[in-house]
Design a protein that fits this description.
By secondary structure, the chain is of the alpha/beta class. The chain contains 12 helices and 13 strands. One of its GO terms (biological process) is proteolysis.
Amino acid sequence: MQVKSAFSALVFCAILTPTWAGWSIDRSCGPVTGNIEKAIKNIMKWPAEVTKSLGKDKDVNEFAARLFNTADFEYVKDIISKIGAQSAMGNSQVDDPIIYCTQDRLEERIRASNQEKYYYDTLGKFTVDKDTYEGCEDKDTFGYTTAFWEKTKSGKGQTTMQLCPKYLKDIGQTPILDGKGKPQNKKLHDSYEKLKMMHGTDIHINDFAGLELTLFHEFVHTPKVRPKPQIMDHGYFWNDATGLSKDKALDNAESYALLALGTWLINQRAAHIQSDGTIEWLEDELAMKKRTAQPWTA
């Protein structure tokens, strides 16, 4: 099921020098933990694909130029590399994100000044507004990332990456891609043939939006990628992301996530991503071998 959504990035305090460690998964994810680990293992291969191809491969360059409205990719490569640096599992720093799958740790509270409802994260020591909480609980938000990592009277804050319960249920909690970049989500599509049955011959990059793309998107929001201000949200999915100005695209988490996913598909699955986001696959065996022997600029 394709879920239309707005990812949310909440920016609080972020005034520390990043030191690289990793990420961890909270026990609230329960049986989904293994799938999250698998999805993160998949996406942490994507930055290397971007690094070796961006600026060198004409197909990747054209794809990136559509997303960022620029041919100067040094800043983009720097952002992507900082995501790859978080590949290790671990939680030694307060800016190492903890991934949650429920919002059970959030307590409902009322502000005395205006009787406004909000939610307090008892573990991360920060607040979440009513709309963000409800959007994640039973509406159309995929996830959100919060950062609050300065010492407070109530304790030390924590960078939190929230995967929303309804979203996890809708997508079947399964990574879309296997290690070779083939679709494997049993609920969305068992094979390329099933994709074609669902979407016709025009398979779109949005059809790959699932656990991997969501997680990569949220990693872009983390303070270790850009401390203050963190990278924001200006457009979601292909049409919105490619409609942004250069400045907004460089500050848009979805743009980086789509770049990483698309580069992986180009390099590993011999995909040609057209200007409208639809995908053509090189079917000639020799052409595919040339395409996947990166960098290929023929």
